[in-house]
Structures are given as structure tokens and as C-alpha cells.
Design a protein that fits this description.
The chain is mainly alpha-helical and about 90 residues long. The chain is about 65% helix and about 0% strand. The protein is built from 3 helices and no strands. Helix 2 crosses helix 3.
Length: about 90
């Protein structure tokens, strides 16, 4: 057999592909302030749930952490340069 066929119910519930409706609901939840971050942690590190959403939540949290780190580094550099320029002027 060249391709795999799946019998209804043969794929575990947490491994099923998320439908467009599921992704729209996830996107709507991500628009709610503070709750979106809580949901990302629940979806990323919860024991159950869809694996697609779980991996997406982990990737989103990782990307947020990287961007926050970059913002911190750039902000620190800008603050340091501003401090030096103010010290030179006055």
C-alpha cells in the first residue's frame, strides 16, 4: 500500500489535526489580555490537549521569551547611551 489510510477513531484525540474552526477559536482566545498568556502556559505544559496546539503554544512562549530578552538588551543599551550623553552634557 502506497499511502496510509486512517479508520475513523484510529488516531488518538490529542493527535488529530486541528480544524480551521479550532484555530479561529484559539485566535480569539489569544486576543484576551492576560488570559492569553495563562492559556499559552496551560496549553504548552498541560498533560492533555491537542499536540498541534501544544507545540504552537510552546513555540509562542519561546518566541515571546526571546523577544522580551532582546527588548531588555536593546533597552539597557539605549538607557546606558542616554546616561552617558546626559553626563557629558551636564
Amino acid at each position: 500500500m502506497d499511502h496510509q489510510t486512517y479508520v475513523e477513531g484510529s488516531v488518538a484525540e490529542n493527535k488529530k489535526v486541528m480544524t480551521m474552526k479550532d484555530w479561529i477559536i484559539v485566535s480569539l482566545f489569544m486576543m484576551i489580555p492576560i488570559a492569553n498568556i495563562v492559556l499559552l502556559f496551560i496549553w504548552a505544559f498541560g498533560s492533555d490537549g491537542n499536540l498541534n496546539r501544544k507545540n504552537w503554544a510552546k513555540a509562542s512562549l519561546l518566541l515571546m521569551a526571546i523577544l522580551m530578552g532582546l527588548y531588555f538588551v536593546v533597552g539597557t543599551i539605549i538607557a546606558f547611551i542616554t546616561f552617558i550623553l546626559l553626563a557629558v552634557e551636564g
